[in-house]
């Protein structure tokens, strides 16, 4: 059972759905309905050639508890009806939280795509969601090695962690040729020139629900609009909050405000902008993949890889800092575009890799079972002499793993290794 409910989840799960189709894996696709506007949901089904979800729970907007609770109640029924071998979800939304909890409460293993990202800020709803999802998951698809290390240092068994790459790289790779073909027309439609405008997205609660931060971003955009054309497709949440603070009118006069865009049109504008300003996770990843200079409107990022080579810089939400960073990134645009590096976010094969691991896990009977600890009733962490242990199968080695994410004894290692083992005195 594959569960999604918001714009980025559909974009990032589409490569997995495609992989499952290609591999002939039988699945049911459930849409929670957390996003329901045509431009936040249906448009992507159409663009990706997907038939639509098998089931739409239609939960809509609400408080975190209402949203997660309704999705859990709906999924509990569906899991009972469909009896899936595995529940799969991607990212860190309330839909993912609900999918993870529903699965494990129904004793069905949960697989988390994009596991291991951390902002270390528990005031961020996404941080709570992703930590819970990772805590209960049986399979962790970490997009990068850094994400995998976050999981290992939280004590997640290396046997469940697979470094797969981020499926957003698959999406960008698959659609960019088509996007490039259409880019000229898209730019013409909006009266824009290649490299001649800034592209902005903003929707994160920490910005939209904090009037001081939202005012800071608006002040920066007003200032930047004196020097650059500014294009801003507005998430409905942001439109509502700007309107509530009486900021929409002044922004509309200075900036090209738009409805949310379909994926192909958005990618065309992203690939050709001078600098992207964003608080989105997916947009940071796409911009990095396309070598688009980025200014992140946050004080931290759970995608630290994107700051490599200065492609992405963190500006926070203070007007002067945003302006300063944007001007600097604009000056560096040529240099950033010419960078040559292997993308640490992935190689475009994440969807297939994830599918294969899912298939193997399901075929080999992955299940949540009561551990038989009668012989060895306790699980403890121990520091062991490295040369005194021979087989990695009998314990979870927490700080050393091979490329398949398996516990791995480095040969000839001296000193102590941190291991988790089952013991009996
Ligand atoms: C959600 C996710 C966020 C993700 C984002 C992707 C949570 C806690 N947040 O944020 O992690 O980055 O999706 O875009 O899960 N609204 C509409 N139409 C819609 C959907 C929402 O108008 O189709 C408006 C409603 O006023 C709603 C508000 O947007 O109250 C917020 O929607 P919600 O799904 O709660 O959170 P997002 O901000 O979209
Ligand atoms: N996106 C889009 N149209 C837009 C803005 C964004 O298709 O008008 C895409 C963008 O390319 C990225 C994804 O939406 O793949 C990011 O979603 P969002 O910023 O809503 O969520 P986040 O990634 O922060 O969770």
Provide structural commentary.
The chain is an alpha/beta fold. It folds into three domains: 179 residues, Glycogen Phosphorylase B (Rossmann fold, 3-Layer(aba) Sandwich); 162 residues, Glycogen Phosphorylase B (Rossmann fold, 3-Layer(aba) Sandwich); 46 residues. The protein has a seven-stranded parallel sheet. The chain has a six-stranded parallel sheet with strand order 10-9-8-11-12-13, sandwiched between helices. Helix 1 links the parallel strand 1 and strand 2. Helix 4 runs parallel beside helix 5. The radius of gyration is 23 Å and the shape is globular. The mean pLDDT is 93. Bound molecules: uridine-diphosphate-N-acetylglucosamine and uridine-5'-diphosphate.
Question: How would you briefly describe this protein structure?
Answer:
With 425 residues, the protein is of the alpha/beta class.
Shape: globular
Over the alpha carbons, how many angstroms does the gyration radius reach? Answer: 23 Å
**How many structural domains in the coordinates?**
3
Q: Which structural class should the secondary elements be placed in?
A: alpha/beta
Bound molecules: uridine-diphosphate-N-acetylglucosamine, uridine-5'-diphosphate
In whole angstroms, how far apart are the ends? 42 Å
Largest sheet: 7 strands, parallel
Question: How many beta-strand elements?
Answer: 16
CATH class (first level) name of the largest domain: Alpha Beta
Helical stretch count?
16
| Spatial sequence of strands, sheet with the most strands | 3-2-1-4-5-6-7
